[in-house]
Backbone:
C-alpha cells in the first residue's frame, strides 16, 4: 500500500491535464500549471505537492520565475532537469509577451498587402491550399491559417472549419485565400 498521494488518486475530472482539455488552460490554478510542466513527482511526494511547495516557497508564479536554477533545486523533488523545464516554460511565456508587446500587427489594406503576406506561404505548392486570414477591427492581422489542402485543381472547404478559425481568433473580419498550382490567376 502506498503512503503518498498522486495525481492518479484524484477523480479523473479533477486531474490537471483532464481539466485543461475540458475547461482550457485559463481554468487551471498556478499549482496545476506547474504540475503539468513538471509532469510527475517523486517517490515520496506527488507532483501536486511539489508544485505547492514551490509556490509556497517563492510566493507566486512570478517568484518561481525569478528564482535561480540553484534556488529551484533546493526544493525536494526538483532536480536540474525539472528546474530547467520550469525556467524554459516561464521563459517561453516571457518571450510570447515580448512578441505581443513589441511587434505591431500588420495592417492589410489592399490585395497587394494580402499577397505580400501569403506569397511565401503558397509559393511552389503542388496542391491547392485554402487559407483564412483573421483580422481585428482595424484590419490588422491576427493570424492566418491553412483550412484545407486539396488536389491539383480543387480544394474542398467546409464552412465549419472557416468559422472555427474566425471565432477562435475573435476575428472582426476574414479574408479567404487560395492558390492555383498551375499558375493561372
Residues:
Amino acid at each position: 500500500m502506498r503512503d503518498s498521494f498522486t495525481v492518479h488518486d484524484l477523480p479523473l475530472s479533477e486531474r490537471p491535464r483532464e481539466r485543461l482539455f475540458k475547461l482550457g488552460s485559463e481554468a487551471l490554478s498556478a499549482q496545476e500549471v506547474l504540475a503539468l510542466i513538471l509532469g510527475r513527482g517523486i517517490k515520496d511526494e506527488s507532483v501536486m505537492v511539489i508544485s505547492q511547495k514551490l509556490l509556497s516557497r517563492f510566493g507566486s508564479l512570478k517568484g518561481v520565475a525569478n528564482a535561480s536554477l540553484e534556488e529551484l533545486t533546493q526544493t525536494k523533488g526538483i532536480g536540474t532537469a525539472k528546474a530547467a523545464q520550469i525556467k524554459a516554460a516561464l521563459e517561453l511565456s516571457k518571450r510570447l509577451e515580448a512578441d505581443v508587446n513589441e511587434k505591431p500587427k500588420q495592417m492589410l489594406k489592399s490585395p497587394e498587402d494580402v499577397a505580400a503576406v501569403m506569397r511565401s506561404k503558397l509559393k511552389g505548392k503542388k496542391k491547392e491550399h485554402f487559407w483564412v486570414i483573421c483580422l481585428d477591427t482595424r484590419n490588422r492581422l491576427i493570424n492566418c491559417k491553412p483550412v484545407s489542402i486539396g488536389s491539383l485543381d480543387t480544394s474542398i472547404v467546409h464552412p465549419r472549419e472557416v468559422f472555427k478559425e474566425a471565432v477562435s481568433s475573435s476575428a472582426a473580419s476574414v479574408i479567404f485565400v487560395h492558390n492555383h498550382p498551375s499558375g493561372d490567376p
In short: The radius of gyration is 23 Å. Residues 7-102 form a domain with the DNA polymerase; domain 1 fold (CATH 1.10.150.20).
